[in-house]
């Protein structure tokens, strides 16, 4: 029996519709969520991501502003801009699109954003709050993955989740979120010995390593839930994930596609975090 496909684009659309109604109600109370995205340089992938974020914001009714800077921008100039946005009462969320040019220290920029406006969920304070299960902004891709699992009522507690990849943006935080939901979590990476022996133990397998179709059916325990976070462009110019979708689909119980899987959910959770930031700011006034 083939796996049920979890279409993130469909779930994202229904969530955005709910958010649109919520924002309309907030505006009637004088609360207008605003997101500022800072884009440095003209990387085509970054431009595409930013365009997706703006479209989502427009649909939901969130005010979004794009600030574009040349790729020779200095770290100090960017820090000055962030300080200005931190102090701007009308701005609820600040997102600096990664990756950044070599002359700018990524961590310094992440840490400069006020935790109250950290809608990406990357600030060490946000990560610390997530680790200790306090209320915070969750990193958008892991938050999206958790929401997808919950949308299908997939049991997480007591299950063995295996994460392939240990990035600060996806791998580490998604493991922590699943741990918070009472899963047993294993992290795998480039130095893991016998990767296949590990992945075949997974009830929930999350591939977030950035290698085209490296996970095929032979890596998957029959009936496992497979979440594919990878976005790789093939030589033919098409997009594919870290999972060989067709072979994996025959073994898994649930699987996410690429595209139309995790990607749309990442942007949707960014919008959710922005609305939360606006409500938090209004409550503190």
UniProtKB/TrEMBL annotation:
<dbReference type="GO" id="GO:0006164">
    <property type="term" value="P:purine nucleotide biosynthetic process"/>
</dbReference>
<dbReference type="InterPro" id="IPR020867">
    <property type="entry name" value="THF_DH/CycHdrlase_CS"/>
</dbReference>
<keyword id="KW-0486">Methionine biosynthesis</keyword>
<comment type="function">
    <text>Catalyzes the oxidation of 5,10-methylenetetrahydrofolate to 5,10-methenyltetrahydrofolate and then the hydrolysis of 5,10-methenyltetrahydrofolate to 10-formyltetrahydrofolate.</text>
</comment>
<dbReference type="InterPro" id="IPR000672">
    <property type="entry name" value="THF_DH/CycHdrlase"/>
</dbReference>
<dbReference type="GO" id="GO:0035999">
    <property type="term" value="P:tetrahydrofolate interconversion"/>
</dbReference>
<dbReference type="Pfam" id="PF02882">
    <property type="entry name" value="THF_DHG_CYH_C"/>
</dbReference>
<dbReference type="InterPro" id="IPR046346">
    <property type="entry name" value="Aminoacid_DH-like_N_sf"/>
</dbReference>
<keyword id="KW-0511">Multifunctional enzyme</keyword>
<keyword id="KW-0028">Amino-acid biosynthesis</keyword>
<feature type="domain" description="Tetrahydrofolate dehydrogenase/cyclohydrolase catalytic">
    <location>
        <begin position="6"/>
        <end position="120"/>
    </location>
</feature>
<keyword id="KW-0554">One-carbon metabolism</keyword>
<comment type="similarity">
    <text>Belongs to the tetrahydrofolate dehydrogenase/cyclohydrolase family.</text>
</comment>
<dbReference type="GO" id="GO:0000105">
    <property type="term" value="P:L-histidine biosynthetic process"/>
</dbReference>
<dbReference type="InterPro" id="IPR036291">
    <property type="entry name" value="NAD(P)-bd_dom_sf"/>
</dbReference>
<comment type="pathway">
    <text>One-carbon metabolism; tetrahydrofolate interconversion.</text>
</comment>
<protein>
    <recommendedName>
        <fullName>Bifunctional protein FolD</fullName>
        <ecNumber>1.5.1.5</ecNumber>
        <ecNumber>3.5.4.9</ecNumber>
    </recommendedName>
</protein>
<feature type="binding site">
    <location>
        <begin position="165"/>
        <end position="167"/>
    </location>
    <ligand>
        <name>NADP(+)</name>
    </ligand>
</feature>
<keyword id="KW-0658">Purine biosynthesis</keyword>
<keyword id="KW-0560">Oxidoreductase</keyword>
<dbReference type="GO" id="GO:0004477">
    <property type="term" value="F:methenyltetrahydrofolate cyclohydrolase activity"/>
</dbReference>
<dbReference type="Pfam" id="PF00763">
    <property type="entry name" value="THF_DHG_CYH"/>
</dbReference>
<dbReference type="GO" id="GO:0005829">
    <property type="term" value="C:cytosol"/>
</dbReference>
<dbReference type="GO" id="GO:0004488">
    <property type="term" value="F:methylenetetrahydrofolate dehydrogenase (NADP+) activity"/>
</dbReference>
<dbReference type="InterPro" id="IPR020630">
    <property type="entry name" value="THF_DH/CycHdrlase_cat_dom"/>
</dbReference>
<keyword id="KW-0521">NADP</keyword>
<feature type="binding site">
    <location>
        <position position="231"/>
    </location>
    <ligand>
        <name>NADP(+)</name>
    </ligand>
</feature>
<dbReference type="InterPro" id="IPR020631">
    <property type="entry name" value="THF_DH/CycHdrlase_NAD-bd_dom"/>
</dbReference>
<comment type="subunit">
    <text>Homodimer.</text>
</comment>
<feature type="domain" description="Tetrahydrofolate dehydrogenase/cyclohydrolase NAD(P)-binding">
    <location>
        <begin position="139"/>
        <end position="281"/>
    </location>
</feature>
<keyword id="KW-0378">Hydrolase</keyword>
<keyword id="KW-0368">Histidine biosynthesis</keyword>
<dbReference type="GO" id="GO:0009086">
    <property type="term" value="P:methionine biosynthetic process"/>
</dbReference>
């Amino acid at each position: 029996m083939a796996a049920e496909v979890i279409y993130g684009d469909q779930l994202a659309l229904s969530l955005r519709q709910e958010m649109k109604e919520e924002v309309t109600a907030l505006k009637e109370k004088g609360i207008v969520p605003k997101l500022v995205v800072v884009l440095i340089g003209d990387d085509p992938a970054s431009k595409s991501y930013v365009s997706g974020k703006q479209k989502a914001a427009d649909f939901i009714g969130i005010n979004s502003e794009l600030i574009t800077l040349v790729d020779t921008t200095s770290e100090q100039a960017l820090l000055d801009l962030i300080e200005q946005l931190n102090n701007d009462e009308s701005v609820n969320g600040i997102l600096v699109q990664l990756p950044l040019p070599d002359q700018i220290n990524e961590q310094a920029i992440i840490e400069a954003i006020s935790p109250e406006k950290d809608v990406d969920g990357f600030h060490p304070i946000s990560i610390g709050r997530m680790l200790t299960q306090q209320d915070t902004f969750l990193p958008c891709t892991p938050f999206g993955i958790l929401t997808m699992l919950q949308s299908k009522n997939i049991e997480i507690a007591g299950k063995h989740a295996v994460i392939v990849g240990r990035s600060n943006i996806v791998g580490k935080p998604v493991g922590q979120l699943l741990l918070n939901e009472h899963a047993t979590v294993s992290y795998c990476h480039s130095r893991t010995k016998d990767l296949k022996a590990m992945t075949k133990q997974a009830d929930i397998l999350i591939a977030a390593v950035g290698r085209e179709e490296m996970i095929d059916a032979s890596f998957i325990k029959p009936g496992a839930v497979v979440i594919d976070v990878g976005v790789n462009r093939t030589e033919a110019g098409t997009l594919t994930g870290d999972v060989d979708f067709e072979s994996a689909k025959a073994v898994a119980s649930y699987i996410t596609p690429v595209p139309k899987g995790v990607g749309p959910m990442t942007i949707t959770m960014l919008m959710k975090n922005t609305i939360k930031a606006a409500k938090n700011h209004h409550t503190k006034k």
